[in-house]
Amino acid sequence: MRKRLAVALVHHPVLDRAQNVIATNITNFDIHDIARACRVYDVETYYIVHPMEEQLMFVSRVLDHWRAGTGSRLNPMRKTALTMVKPIASIEAALRDWGGDGPVIATSAKEHSELPQKTFSEAREVLTQQDGFLVFGTGFGLADQALDQCDFCIEPIRGVGEEDYRHLSVRSAVSICLDRLRGP
Fold first, then answer.
1. In sequence order, which ranges of 75-142 are alpha helices (DSSP H)?
2. 178 to each of 5, 14, 96, 97, 120, how far by Cα in Å?
3. Could you say which of 3.30.450.40, 3.40.1280.10, 3.30.1490.20, 3.90.550.10 is the CATH number of the domain covering 5-182?
4. Tens-level pLDDT at each residue, the chain (184 residues)
5. 29 membership: H or E segment, kind and range
6. HSE value, Cβ hemisphere, 13 Å, CA-based, for 55
7. Going by C-beta distance under 8 Å and a sequence separation of 6 or more, which residues neighbour residue 68?
């Protein structure tokens, strides 16, 4: 039996380019595209984490349109993909809601010496034995307050270019990580 997996897209606490802790805006694309990737890879719950009520209300309006409104009739496949999306105010609240007992796993384009690091292969092995909670940051990555809640970090996704460019959209990073961790 496949172990449970949750994904959290964190909009706060994350960093800006100057390494200040900020909150980023939720985008419509992140709601839809990450939900579809989560559906493909059998993710139980996709949490969209933001402390501002207005941002969570935006997610709820989008979800209502596609789950019960006109969108549900126009595109039933999207309705199916959005069933596991939950807007929530904090990582702590998401962890309580999820209730799993497996590791909380950070992702990052940077190395983090304060956290143990695992390769994708090692993390995949962990996730075959235990439930997991996978945390993605927006902006310029997860702030220390978010990383402090994680048990380990997966190695950064590396491309093939000589300059080691690692600034993927979070939608791309989620898809790559899910495929490496749960794909055939």
1. 76-81, 91-98, 120-129
2. 10, 21, 22, 21, 10
3. 3.40.1280.10
4. 789 999 999 999 999 999 999 999 999 999 999 999 999 999 999 999 999 999 999 999 999 999 888 888 888 888 899 999 999 999 999 999 999 889 999 999 988 888 999 999 999 999 999 999 999 999 999 999 999 999 999 999 998 888 888 789 999 999 999 999 999 9
5. helix 28-40
6. 19
7. none
What's the number of CA atoms in the CB half-sphere (13 Å) around residue 19? 2
Q: Which sequence spans correspond to the domains of the chain?
A: 5-182
Which pair of tokens denotes residue 19?
């390494």
